């Protein structure tokens, strides 16, 4: 059976500004590019030049983007929502709060996606996913968005890529999905506004608590949305080192705790695979 025709939605300076205004989201003027090698690179350059917090770069196409662990993130024109945000955590915040920057982004993206009726969950450290098998029948969860945070001086640039209009043949990996494949029609400008609105609300709560992810309710909200906690997992620590056990907690620094025959071990960075018992 032939796949459905590819659909796209508008992503222009005018459509983005209109969507932000309609949802009452206030950010500096958004840089909207027809194409970029990497929205993170564009935003990192702007961060180095001193642009204000919540400066946003969004591109219709990304030709040389990157994900965690050096993976590429390339998306054809018109299919994904690809954007990067410049954040400047307050210098008075506890050091632990910095580890939560990408996790908060994932939580906000899951808020926005869930607002369209898609039951988005979080796979530690930075994937927004849908529970269940992949569309090709292999083990899930199905990845709908990824996040990459990079530091530049006192700023953190957080890049987000959300699969929006992709059909199955366009997905980067078999275990990926898109909003279209989940049965939802979304305008990318509106989705961007939803993400930024949810993100700003989460960020403001953290700021009001002086950077305390516990007092602000951020950690509680993340744990409630986590698909990793309570799962049997394999963590690739790099260099051929693997850790297999049960994911039992995400701590105040955003680190994952895993328990197994080795006892309990904290993981600050690694590639997590959910295993079947």
Largest sheet: 7 strands, mixed
Mean model confidence by pLDDT: 91
Reading the helices and strands in chain order gives: HEHEEEEHEEEEHHEEEEE
Rg: 18 Å
Report how far the terminal alpha carbons are from each other.
35 Å
Strand order of the largest sheet: 1-2-5-9-8-7-6
Structural class: alpha+beta
Globally, the shape reads globular
- What share of residues are in beta strands? 25-35%
**SS summary, helix count:** 5
| Helix percent band | 10-25%
Low-confidence stretches: none
Number of strands: 14
Your description of this structure?
The protein is an alpha+beta fold and 277 residues long. The chain is 23% helix and 30% strand. It is built from 5 helices and 14 strands. The strands form 3 sheets. It has a 7-stranded mixed sheet, with helices on both faces. The protein has a 5-stranded antiparallel sheet with strand order 13-12-11-10-14, with no helix packed on it. The longest helix is centred in the C-terminal third of the chain and has 21 residues. It is globular, with a radius of gyration of 18 Å. The mean pLDDT is 91.
Q: What secondary-structure arrangement, pairings included, does this model have?
A:
Blueprint: H1 13-22, E1 31-33, H2 39-48, E2 56-59, E3 62-66, E4 72-75, E5 80-87, H3 101-114, E6 120-123, E7 127-130, E8 142-152, E9 155-163, H4 188-208, H5 218-225, E10 232-238, E11 241-250, E12 256-260, E13 263-267, E14 271-275
Parallel strand pairs: 1-2
Antiparallel strand pairs: 2-5, 3-4, 5-9, 6-7, 7-8, 8-9, 10-11, 10-14, 11-12, 12-13
